[in-house]
Design goal:
By secondary structure, this protein is an alpha/beta fold. It contains 6 helices and 17 strands. The protein has a 5-stranded parallel sheet with strand order 5-2-1-9-17, with helices on one face. Strands 11-15-12-13-14 form a 5-stranded parallel sheet, covered by helices on one side. A 3-stranded antiparallel sheet has the order 6-7-8, with no helix packed on it. It is elongated and about 65 Å long.
Length: about 280
Amino acid sequence: MDVVIAGGGVAGLEALLGLRAMAGDKIRLTLVAPDGNFSYRPLAVAEPFALGHAHRVPLTRFTEQVGAELVIDALERVDDDARRLELSDRSQRSFDALLVATGGRPVVGVEGATTWWPGGDADTYGGLLQDIDEGYAKQIAIVVPPGAVWPLPAYELALMTVGEAREMGQEGVQVTVVTPEHTPLSLFGENASRALAEELRWAGVEVRTGTVVQNAAELGMQRVFAVPRIVGPIVEGLPMDEEGFILAADDGLVQNCERTWAAGDGVASPVKIGGQATHQARIA
């Protein structure tokens, strides 16, 4: 049985390792990814503060471990009926089962704001920290745009920025998180939301909930940063919503398909986080 996994992120690697552990040598595994490295990003948000950095691990470390073929290319099109996929170089491959875990794509969510997220240019946020140190920036907003987002980095940035300003000896620096959520990280449950709200109050971070910002000028702040809005991977031949996210059932099977599953940030879902991506991959 030929199984192809498209995507070298957390969902793709979870599926790669899990399938080999479950099926052993009954399947031939192929991993297709546009980048030859896996980027582990939880500490990337700390890069501008010199407190951590993203780790990059060659995908060969995983494929060699499980005896899988690695193809460095991007998925463009899927024909589930014919059991064939097409890559960006126009080459085609057949499959008996396909898992699409190509992730989401970050785009600007707030016009006029500086967009930054883990994996973005650390120097971009470093410029703000320099302005704080020199006393030029006292009012800073960090915005969560409406729609599908990675919200957690906004709160991490806010807490780290307040702490860094105090370390610099800069007084009167006000950091405000502006979010359409009813409470901070409300999608992660009441306990997580309450714990984060208490942490933000303790740190002196102001939070404006239930607020949708379309343009940074609406806020009247000296500096406005925003995490990106996330849109889907847009894989031709697969059903998707208006934002390009793949439509799949709870078991991961893509709508109107018999041999194609999907997992991760590229699937239509209100929550975008690595833990859910790996859970979806295990189910699929």
